Amino acid sequence: MPKILLLSLLLLCGLVTLGEARLVATGVSEGMAYEVEEVAGGLGVVWGLTFIAENEILLTEREGRLQRLNLDSGETTPVRGAPQVWHRGQGGLLDVAVPADFVQGDWIYFTYSKDVGGQGATTLARARLRDDALVDFENLLVTDSATGTARHFGSRIAFDESGHVYFSIGDRGVRATAQDRSNHAGTIVRLHRDGSVPADNPFVEGEGLREIWCYGLRNTQGLFWDRATGRLWSNDHGPRGGDEINLIRPGANYGWPVVSHGKEYWGPVAVGEATSKPGMQDPVKVFTPSIAPGSLIVYSGKAFPRWRGHLFSGALALRHLNRVVLDGEDKPVAEERLLTGLGERIRQVVESPEGWLYFSTDSGKVFRIRPVIPAS
């Protein structure tokens, strides 16, 4: 059969779409009907997503590529000027984010693994976007986190309303570093947006690196500032079991590896001394077995009003979109695992201006969830 005729038949049957989103699933949650569409595919490991316009996303591929994604057409455009990344194991081009007050031409923030003496160090950088290229690129903090492993780089970015930027760094595969405040591994860092250190950060000279906001974390790949409450949330990868959702407090020690709900990979042996210990912050929620959370947001949109205030994260190991409901005391009271039939490692989740959810997968796809509008 000629290729043109075959393509025409597939289009008529709805099996191929050109420049349009493809419906892949439908569902109901909290009495609200939704549909899931594939917006783009054929990419690498899509690690970070951020809206730079109402109909445009800037996305990172861990391999080191940066792309603009037009949500109307589904077309991607390469962006030049991305940093040279140390792409090994879990390292590469990681998060991309902009603050809530972003307008065209403002700074765009990135995290990536930078080659430091042949090892990878999680790095915060910023640049401006001009047409299809980054300009004025600058590293704000090359963290003291390099190790001989290719694991646990973190790293998500969040912004508060007071001009601060937060980003996470994993323990870099060396557990003891997370309890050592003389390095950045296993921490969340707070800086001014220009990279300078706020004077009111919790640790002063001699107590630890002044950039550190909190410590004792294993591999935080979800970080979100809830503008409605003024609180910072994170999720953290446990070892074999023991993934955590944490409410982040300045100066707090989240316990890793002294405190953990997980077990060793080599056998049924608990990691650490206990699951809780005085002076160490307990998690809000623990996932055992691990779901491997790859992102975190607090939903605030109008499209799904019954989801407002709920926590959403992608699940890499158990391959679903995770929804957690908290009560007024920040205790989990319900959990729902959405899109289990999709079979995708969900990496990043973001909320669009209209309140739809967009998420990326390690298979190189971008999807969206939007409400089903009843026919009039």
Structural commentary:
This protein has 376 residues and is mainly beta. It has a single domain, classed as Neuraminidase (6 Propeller). Helix content is 3%, strand content 41%. It has one helix at 3-12; strands at 22-29, 32-40, 46-53, 56-61, 66-70, 76-78, 93-97, 108-116, 119-130, 133-142, 157-159, 164-169, 187-192, 212-215, 220-226, 231-236, 243-248, 285-287, 297-298, 311-315, 320-326, 332-338, 346-351, 357-361, 366-371. The strands form 6 sheets. It has a 5-stranded antiparallel β-sheet, with no helix packed on it. Strands 3-4-5-6 form a 4-stranded antiparallel β-sheet, with no helix packed on it. It has a 4-stranded antiparallel β-sheet with strand order 7-8-9-10, with no helix packed on it. A hairpin with a 2-residue loop joins strand 9 (119-130) and strand 10 (133-142). The termini are far apart.
What are the main properties of this structure?
single chain, 376 residues, mainly beta, Neuraminidase, 5-stranded antiparallel beta sheet, 1 helix, 3% helix
Write the layout of secondary structure elements.
Blueprint: H1 3-12, E1 22-29, E2 32-40, E3 46-53, E4 56-61, E5 66-70, E6 76-78, E7 93-97, E8 108-116, E9 119-130, E10 133-142, E11 157-159, E12 164-169, E13 187-192, E14 212-215, E15 220-226, E16 231-236, E17 243-248, E18 285-287, E19 297-298, E20 311-315, E21 320-326, E22 332-338, E23 346-351, E24 357-361, E25 366-371
